[in-house]
Design brief:
five-stranded mixed β-sheet, 45% strand, single chain, 41 strands, four-stranded antiparallel β-sheet, Immunoglobulin-like
Length: 474
C-alpha cells in the first residue's frame, strides 16, 4: 500500500477514536473498570485507545476460557489487544498479540483456533512502510498457545492479495483439521483463502457496490460466508450467503432481509453453524425501523420472529450446547438483550435484559459466545469493550391464571426452557412453594382467604434467569 494511503486511513480513523476512561456523571463515583464479570455485572476488558468502528472476535478454548481479540490504538488502530476470561466471567489476563505497533491495522480482526488447540488471530495489516513480508497488506496471522499468554508472528498469511488491509469486514473459520479460512470484502469483490500457502486467493465479483461485514462459518465439511449487500435493487440489497468450500455454490438472499432496495447495515453479519447441523442467520426485518429480528435456517423459506427485538441496531449469534443457538442484540434505547433457542434451533426461550455499563448510552458492536451454558456477551460502547454473561431464561405458566375470591384453588405451574420441561425449579408465591418434577410441573394450593388482587409468582433454578408470573384473584 502506498504511504499516502496509510496516512489518509489514519486521519479518517482518528476522528472516531475516543479515550479509554469512563466519564461518570457529575457528582457520582466512577465505577471500577473490572468487577465480578459474571451475570448482572459489566466489566471493561479492553485497554488502550478505542474507536467506534472497532469490532471484537471471540473464541473459546477447550479449557472453557473465552478469548477476545480486538483492535486498539490512539489516533488509529495499530495493535491487537487480547484478553482471556474465565468460565465464571473473571478477567484472567490482558496482553498484546503483536510485538509492536503497526502502521495500519484491520478494524475487524477474527479469532479462531489452531489444530493443536491454540489461538490464531487473522487480520489485514501493514507492519511498516519499509519493504518486508508483513508490509504487503495481506491477511496475516498471529498465533498463541491455548493460554494466550505469549503470541508469535509467523511469516505466513491466510491469503496473498495485498488489499486485505482495506477489508470491509473480515471473517474467518477453520476446517476440521484446523486449517484457517479467511474472507474479506472490498468494494464489489469478496475474496477468500484456505490455508497459509502461497496459492492464489479465490474471489467473486458482485454486480453492485458494496459488500460489507463478512462472516465465515463451517458446517461439517462445508464453509459458508455471509455478507451485507448495499445494492440498489431488491435483488441486490440485504443479507446474502454462499457456500465457498469445498465447492462454490449459488448466492442466496435471506428472506425478508430488505424492504425493496432498502435495509439497515448492523455490523458483522450474524451467522452461525448450529451444533448438530445447519447454518443460521439472524438479521433485521423491516425498514427504516427494524420491526424484529428474523432467524433463518439457510436453505429454507421460513423466518422465525425473535420476540421483543424491535428497534434492533446491532446483533450477533452463536451456537450453543445441545443444538441450541444464542442471539444477542442492542436496540436504540439502548439496552442489551439475549435469548436462547430450543434444541432444534427454533422455538424461543425467555429473553434476558442485561442492562448497560454504568454511564454509557451507545452501542457500536455486539458479539456473543454461547458454547457453554451461559452466554458471554462483549459490546463496544465507544470507550472500549465490555463483557458480561447471561443465563438462559425460564418461562413460567400457571393454570388457572385467575379465579374468584373466596374459593380454594389449586394452581398447576409449568417451567420450561424454550419448550423443554425444567425439573428442579423452585416456584414461590409468597410463603408457598413447590418444586418442579421431571415434567417441569408442580402445584400450589391457595386458600379461600387469599386476598383479591395480584399474586406474584417467581420461578428460579440454578444456571437460569428467573421467571415471574402474575395471577389474579377477582
Amino acid at each position: 500500500m502506498p504511504l499516502h494511503r496509510i496516512a489518509l486511513c489514519g486521519v479518517a480513523l482518528a476522528s472516531l477514536v475516543l479515550t479509554t476512561g469512563l466519564n461518570a456523571p457529575a457528582g457520582s463515583a466512577a465505577p471500577p473498570d473490572r468487577e465480578r464479570g459474571g451475570p448482572g455485572s459489566w466489566t471493561k476488558i479492553s485497554v488502550g485507545g478505542s474507536g467506534i468502528t472497532y469490532t471484537s472476535s471471540l473464541h473459546r478454548t477447550a479449557d472453557g476460557v473465552l478469548h477476545v481479540i480486538y483492535p486498539k490504538g490512539s489516533g488509529a488502530a495499530d495493535q491487537l489487544g487480547h484478553v482471556s476470561i474465565s468460565p465464571s466471567g473473571a478477567v484472567i489476563q490482558q496482553n498484546d498479540a503483536l510485538p509492536s505497533a503497526w502502521a495500519a491495522m484491520d478494524l475487524t480482526p477474527a479469532l479462531v483456533g489452531t489444530a493443536d488447540g491454540g489461538l490464531r488471530a487473522v487480520f489485514g495489516g501493514i507492519q511498516s512502510v519499509d519493504p518486508g513480508f508483513w508490509s504487503d497488506g495481506r491477511m496475516y496471522t498471529a498465533t498463541a498457545p491455548a493460554s494466550g499468554a505469549s503470541w508469535t508472528l509467523p511469516a505466513e498469511a491466510v491469503g496473498t492479495t495485498t488489499s486485505a488491509v482495506d477489508s470491509y469486514g473480515t471473517g474467518a473459520t477453520t476446517l476440521a483439521d484446523g486449517t484457517p479460512v479467511a474472507a474479506w470484502p472490498l468494494n464489489s469483490r469478496i475474496t477468500w483463502h484456505v490455508g497459509t500457502g502461497s496459492d492464489p486467493d479465490q474471489s467473486f465479483d458482485l454486480p453492485y457496490c458494496c459488500a460489507y461485514d463478512v462472516s465465515v462459518v463451517r458446517d461439517g465439511d462445508d464453509v459458508w460466508l455471509g455478507w451485507y449487500g448495499n445494492g440498489s435493487t431488491a435483488a441486490t440489497n440485504g443479507i446474502f450467503v454462499r457456500k465457498i468450500y469445498p465447492t462454490a455454490g449459488a448466492i442466496i438472499k435471506a428472506p425478508q432481509s430488505s424492504v425493496g432496495a432498502n435495509s439497515p447495515r448492523l455490523g458483522q453479519v450474524a451467522l452461525a453453524a448450529r451444533t448438530g447441523g445447519g447454518v443460521y442467520a439472524a438479521y433485521c426485518v423491516g425498514y427504516p425501523t427494524c420491526d424484529h429480528i428474523g432467524l433463518w435456517k439457510v436453505g429454507t423459506s421460513k423466518v422465525t420472529k425473535v420476540p421483543h427485538s424491535k428497534y434492533v441496531d446491532h446483533l450477533a449469534i452463536s451456537p450453543g450446547p445441545s443444538g441450541r443457538l444464542w442471539i444477542a442484540w442492542s436496540d436504540n434505547i439502548p439496552k442489551i438483550q439475549t435469548i436462547r433457542t430450543g434444541r432444534n434451533g427454533s422455538g424461543m426461550g425467555a429473553g434476558q435484559r442485561l442492562g448497560m455499563p454504568h454511564g454509557t448510552d451507545s452501542v457500536y458492536d455486539v458479539a456473543i459466545d454461547g458454547t457453554t451454558g451461559r452466554g458471554d456477551v462483549v459490546i463496544q460502547v465507544g470507550n472500549g469493550f465490555w463483557h458480561t454473561q447471561a443465563f438462559a431464561g425460564l418461562t413460567l405458566t400457571g393454570k388457572p391464571g385467575a379465579w374468584k375470591h373466596g374459593k380454594k384453588r389449586k394452581v398447576t405451574f409449568a417451567v420450561t426452557d424454550a419448550g423443554d420441561a425444567v425439573a428442579g425449579a423452585k416456584v414461590k408465591a409468597g410463603s408457598r412453594t413447590c418444586t418442579t418434577k421431571g415434567n417441569g410441573k408442580c402445584t400450589i394450593t391457595f386458600p379461600k382467604a387469599t386476598k383479591k388482587g395480584k399474586v406474584t409468582v417467581r420461578a428460579t433454578r440454578n444456571a437460569y434467569g428467573p421467571a415471574v408470573l402474575v395471577l389474579k384473584v377477582k
